[in-house]
Amino acid sequence: GYMLNKILRIVLYSIFIMFLFFILTACDKSINIDINKNDGNSIGNLLNYGLFCYDEENLYFNELKGGESVLYRSNYDLSNKEMIKKGIFYYLNITKDQIFYVDENKRVYSMNKEGENEKLLFNDDVTFLYTYKNKLYLLSYNYNNSCMFQLLSMNYDGSGIKVLSDESEKILKFWIYDDKIYSMIAKDREGYKLMESDLDGENNVELYCTKSEYFGLLINQNKMYYIRDGGAIEVIEMENGNFKILKNDGILSIEQFININDNFITFPGDNLNLYVYNINTLETKSLGLKCSDLSFRENGKYGENVGCYLLDDFLYYYKNGFMFMKKIN
User: Which of 5, 112, 92 is nearest to 41 (CA)?
Assistant: First the structure.
């Protein structure tokens, strides 16, 4: 009897442990995402108005609640969603303990990750914001009454403002990779030029002159990938200038929904369907989504099609003002 009871206790204990393991595993909705992140957001996500960003533990994103925009925090799989602050938050950048963003009046603010200690950092019109190595880089219109767009840098507290772009040139957008700034400059009647400079705006070099504007740009393993107006994905080997067209059909010249990371390029294609191009396999496939359906809109409060967002091999997108996700591979 004693031995039988002992065996029975061991069996019941084993069943309990297995049951507990099953429950914990079933409740674990975490996604294994490989994050190599040193800065506030990806350039590709920011080119889609930056309503979405992430740190090593959570997502931070805008979503509509009762027709009003709210900033939320959640797990990578969108579970455990919690409200941080009401408002619309463009060009989200997140560091170890701060969130930087542009509000609906195009002003730059900072706050902590709980939505507290909000501070106004820059009061002129800003249309792009990026954090890189403890500096804010931004595209601003009419700074010091210049009546034109300028590339500026500043400290995280808003001090130390420096103009990095040539005041005589019309800068449209910029990207930062490997401690270099790449700027798209409009040239009167001559198309566009791509400039490279140091982070302080010095040592400007004209890399390429082109008839078409670049929508997205990625520097990866000494290759420059970009999507140009007119509908083509192209790559240039930066050491020797060798040029190759990777895809030149079925790409619509709509800047929203063009996103790019180390593995994928998303773009709007035929019939406004959303496609993805794999940089490694050179394959294109449909994501089963229609760009015209992907909007930050609820009851007409906000109407813009803000685009889509990439984190590793996951796509995040809006439908009727709510965030959804799907695996690309």
Answer: 92
Strand partners of residue 285: 276
pLDDT at 196: 93
Q: What is the 3-state secondary structure (H, E, C) of 43-77?
A: HHHHCCCCCEEECCCCEEEEEEECCEEEEEEECCC
| pLDDT(97) > 70 | yes
Dist CA 173 CA 158 (whole Å): 21
- SS3 annotation, 137-169: EEEEECHHHCCCEEEEEECCCCCCCEECCCCCC
305: left (phi over 0), alpha (psi -120 to 50) or beta: beta
Q: Which two tokens stand for residue 10?
A: 């061991």
CA angle 146-152-156, nearest 5°?
A: 135
Alpha carbon distance 104, 49 (integer Å)? 11
pLDDT confidence of 294, banded at 50, 70, 90?
Answer: confident
The whole-angstrom distance between residue 300's C-alpha and the CA centroid of its chain comes to 24
Nearest 10 degrees: CA dihedral of 238, 165, 36, 95?
A: 180
pTM of the model: 0.86
Neighbours of 190 (CB within 10 A): 10
Q: Which long-range contacts (CB under 8 A, 24 or more apart) does 276-284 make?
A: 276/315, 276/328, 277/233, 277/246, 277/247, 279/220, 279/225, 282/246, 284/247, 284/250
